[in-house]
Design a protein that fits this description.
- The protein is of the alpha/beta class and about 300 residues long.
- The protein has nine helices and twelve strands.
- The protein has helices at about 30-45, 75-80, 100-115, 140, 155-165, 215-225, 230-235, 255-260, 295-305; strands spanning about 10-15, 15-20, 50, 90-95, 120-125, 170, 175-180, 185-195, 200-210, 245, 265-275, 280-285.
- A six-stranded mixed β-sheet has the order 8-5-9-12-11-10, with helices on one face.
- α8 links the parallel β10 (about 245) and β11.
- The chain starts with 8 loop residues before the first strand and ends in a 6-residue tail after the last helix.
């Protein structure tokens, strides 16, 4: 492999964690296609692959894991391994989510854990230019400007949210499937914008709960601040001390002030208030190049090791 790497994968291999950073200068014809083949080759060779790439996010046997939300989805890995002949003993692929999805599903999960299912969510993103990868958005396009379109991004958020927040169903034959939040249908509407910020995706979120009456804004603040993910309880070294930092100031969170808190491994939430259309609305900030990228892959790998999912 080339030496020219910047953030794409995390592999756990032979007891050592290797961070392989995004292929910047491999001179490949189609980097996503070539990454797919690399991931498939590592898995087939019985290596555990923790990927930040998009190729397998929709695979029905590959878990799409935000480590502060749904590491329980690792339970589908034996089924993934069983589809090979002979079945794989150690090899598998785990993916983490799109950067914009990751930031807002963490507070959504915390709210569902405290107050039951969410039945509708509106999210409007203000996404940093680093999220566009290398070489990124042209300076002439982004300076003094907002671009109200990011190709494929809205559909990714709307679909990935369902896979992440949904459960795993099992039929009479023992076949597992991701239920896509089917037990309580969740409607998601996303609008995505590129803004002239270097790092840190800001998202304005409104939610409607199935429960009536819904929780108050104060109850929402308390639930978000108290949220403790399994990755933190288990002692994953890269997990944040506080998964969700709740700000009381009316003008927080802000990318320049909050994106590097806890090395970007958690998210910041502020402006929690009543929504006149749905129930509650708030602002989320997530570091798209940390928890929105390889940091998620690393925590996923740490969780899998501590749970014995990765075999020595």
């Amino acid at each position: 492999m080339s030496r020219h790497l910047i953030t794409w994968y995390c592999f756990f291999f032979a007891g050592n964690l290797f961070s392989l950073y995004e292929l910047k200068s491999l001179h490949l014809g189609n980097k996503y296609s070539d990454i797919l083949h690399l991931e498939e080759a590592f898995r087939a060779a019985d290596f555990a692959v923790f990927s930040n790439a998009k190729n397998f996010r929709r695979d029905p046997h590959v878990p799409l894991i935000v480590p502060l939300v749904n590491p329980s989805h690792l339970s589908i890995i034996p089924q993934q391994q069983s589809h090979f002949q002979p079945p794989l003993k150690k090899g598998f692929i785990v993916t983490n989510a799109n950067c914009s999805t990751t930031g807002y599903v963490i507070p959504l999960y915390a709210l569902e854990k405290s107050f039951g299912p969410i039945e509708a969510a509106l999210v409007t993103t203000m996404q940093a230019i680093s999220g566009a990868g290398y070489p990124g958005v042209s300076s002439l396009d982004i300076l003094d400007n907002v671009i109200p379109y990011i190709s494929g991004e809205e559909e990714k958020i709307e679909w990935e949210t369902l896979k992440i927040l949904g459960g795993i169903a099992e039929d009479d034959q023992g076949v597992q499937t991701f239920d896509m939040h089917a037990r309580q249908p969740l409607r998601v509407s996303a609008s995505c914008n590129r803004v002239p910020v270097i790092d840190g995706h800001t998202e304005c979120v409104s939610v409607r709960f199935a429960r009536r009456p819904p929780p108050s804004p104060q109850q929402v603040r308390e639930a978000l601040a108290a949220f403790t993910p399994d990755a933190q309880t288990l002692g994953c070294p890269s997990a944040p001390r506080h998964a969700i930092t709740v700000h009381e100031e009316p003008d927080r969170p802000q990318p320049r002030l909050d994106r590097y808190y806890q090395d970007g491994a958690g998210v910041s939430v502020g402006r929690v208030r009543q929504c006149q259309v749905l129930d509650v609305k708030f602002v989320v900030l997530a570091n798209n190049v940390s928890i929105g990228a390889a940091t998620s892959s690393i925590i996923n790998a740490e969780f899998a090791v501590l749970k014995g999912v990765v075999q020595p």
